[in-house]
Amino acid sequence: MTSKVIAVAQQKGGAGKTSVAAHLATALVSAGKSVALVDVDPQESLTAWHSLRVDQHGDEAAFDFSTCEGWKAPAQIAQMRRNNDFVVIDTPPHAETAARQAVREADMVLVPLQLSPMDVWAMRETLDLVDREKTGFLLVLNRVPPRAKTADELRAQLKKEKLPVAKATLGNRVAFASSLMQGLGITEAARTSRAGQEMAALAKEIMKKA
Ligand SMILES: Nc1ncnc2c1ncn2[C@@H]1O[C@H](COP(=O)(O)OP(=O)(O)OP(=O)(O)O)[C@@H](O)[C@H]1O
Ligand SMILES: [Mg+2]
Description:
CATH superfamily: P-loop containing nucleotide triphosphate hydrolases
Number of helices: 9
Mean pLDDT: 94
Low-confidence stretches: none
CATH architecture: 3-Layer(aba) Sandwich
CATH topology: Rossmann fold
Largest sheet: 6 strands, parallel
Shape: globular
Distance between the termini: 14 Å
Bound molecules: adenosine-5'-triphosphate, magnesium ion
């Protein structure tokens, strides 16, 4: 099985890494893919979401899941690659060892980016960790408010720099958080909502690119 490892990374705290990892993983499952999830952030937010998911929806909703405790990156990821179409890794903010290792193991680094200069600066530092010869990357605009001219300007700027930006953008939508609170991803909780459509579109783009 040729599987793809996607690390969701962005050194800016609160950019949406954990949310994107959970929604993307479930959207890939909704699209018929087998997915493993890895949480290498000591905050363990993704792990908390996954525990809630299993509590609420039973073992059949469980992912092939690995937490950061005792994480042995290469060996564990190799194993997960063998059994799944995709391995999605949630990483901590800042260039901690775990984040660097995850980026090194990845075939694609997905970088959520909000409309702030701080996010853009941190994005550049994140991309410095990526070996661009070996690893693909994709930026995704997150928490975009409706009719945001800034989003169009940022997209144009990134394009000018030849940085790949996902066509799909994720709006600033409560549904992204509320579905996670039910242990679900948005494509499971509300597939036809705006948020659900945005995430399905992002997953589709990633399946095509990866
Ligand atoms: N598209 C969105 N719409 C609305 N809220 C969002 C969206 N994306 C993320 N959030 C909210 O932003 C906050 C930060 O998101 P999240 O925890 O996923 O970021 P993170 O990058 O993983 O943070 P950290 O760097 O601390 O790990 C959360 O409260 C989350 O619900
Ligand atoms: Mg996080």
